[in-house]
């Protein structure tokens, strides 16, 4: 009885002060909307990254030379280095591994027809690299094992566009300078969407054969090997065999990373990311909450006499408190519902323009409802308490 | 039913303590129609607040239906107000957002018991005060006299044993005021409800069975 009466009363009171109610609503809508948008965009990005990663295949182990805790960075101080022959011997030695693709990152100035190519990076790979990375060829052909020591290169689609812009016609047969070497383009890889989980940007690469790379790159060292697990074998088995193989070699220390580990790590990072976004959104939510408190305080002041009348007619302090709390919760909940619509809409737009797969996160919606009623209770409590503590006589005498 | 013994009430205004009630003694029997009359500033409003359990006396004893109530806790006082006292105010004090019918039903919201015949009871009371045809009007669509009738229906809805009216005709012209007074007299005579009217108007006081004159914080013997 009292709750339904309070609900009715709250709706009536909020409707009677429309302008004020709408202003407070806007605050809450923006607050909840930004939290929802942030959190659901975070989720969408996370899903998208995972999807791209899984598209690449979850059967690929990455073997890296361990630089003593700082993977991928700093010059090599370890005495031993991986040898190409040892890498080539992995599949026969480890039955669970089907193919390996070692690679070497190069450095050096890259230019075409005397103009520098800023967004291009050289990398030395084997023929298996194309397939293991799910890349395809758009023009010409990829490097083959017959191209050992050759001065051929295959370029990514963006490098190709750049060359075309600089007047390379035909593309195939053009010559790019890498450091002091001239490389002839024999193929172009198809464009892949950016933002994938590869550790390199395929569209900006200049691939040479690994034997060439080891000769022409400064400080070239075999540091990364990708290994595809044979169908039917588990990642764990392949990993065990690889670990055993490398310890038999007595070569450098290696670190073997499985896709599961990378996914777990990614998820952890993404959660942090989502949390951060949510925290940023929460700031606007606090502002919205203060708006609710403000409106409720005004409402309490305006309705002092009403409070006095209700108290005289037998309302207990708790009844008055409940009445105003319900009012602020309704205000915040309505704002929250609109906020959810706005937030979901905003994240849909963002996903649409970034060409990510949109997904509606139920968690975000529950979060919106929960947080908005929480805001209503938290920011409504103080005004409601003020109302409840009013002395009935003072309240009756006020106008 | 009401027994006030040496009720004192003082307020602290700044550094000075102001005594408003200086030892009020009053006894009201069940079924009485009593007016408490006095000039403004004599303390009658404060006395009304004490009797209406809106305010606590500084000292003294106040028995309602044989039970000491002056020092009861706030929630219990609310409950007594809700169950046993019906208020009628000079400015009617209807809630402007509610219809007459909803205003009459207001005290019932604060009862823990749920009732389905609230609607009928409220309509009956509106009929009783001659306002049945205005049940769905809001206060600003009613005249002062009509609003006061609605307020009286509201005071009656909880079947109180005491109706406490503070200058109930103060904002009405003589004729309408007279009608309101007639209503009180009928309620008192026909239903035996105790009515206490606080007023400064000797004309109103004269219509009551008993008049208690108040002056300077005490009731004159």
What does this structure look like?
The complex is a heterodimer of chains A (399) and B (221). With 399 residues, chain A is an alpha+beta fold. Chain A folds into 2 domains: 2-53 and 264-397, no CATH class; 80-252, no CATH class. Chain A contains 13 helices and 12 strands. In chain A, strands 1, 2, 3, 4, 5, 6, 7, 8, 9, 10, 11 and 12 form a 12-stranded mixed beta sheet that branches. In chain A, helix 1 (2-16) crosses helix 11 (317-353) and helix 2 (18-56) packs antiparallel against helix 9. Chain A is elongated. Residues 69-78 of chain A have low confidence and may be disordered. Chain B is built from 7 helices and 10 strands. In chain B, the strands form 2 sheets. A 6-stranded mixed beta sheet of chain B has the order 6-7-8-3-9-10, with helices on both faces. In chain B, strands 2-1-4-5 form a 4-stranded antiparallel beta sheet, with helices on one face. In chain B, strand 7, helix 6 and strand 8 form a beta-alpha-beta unit. Chain B has 221 residues and is α/β, with parallel strands linked by helices. Chain B has helices spanning 44-51, 74-84, 100-109, 118-128, 144-156, 174-191, 202-206; strands at 2-13, 16-28, 33-37, 59-64, 67-68, 85-88, 162-166, 194-199, 210-215, 218-219. Classes of the chains: A alpha+beta (399), B alpha/beta (221). At the A-B interface, helix 1, helix 10, helix 11 and helix 13 of A face helix 2 and helix 3 of B.
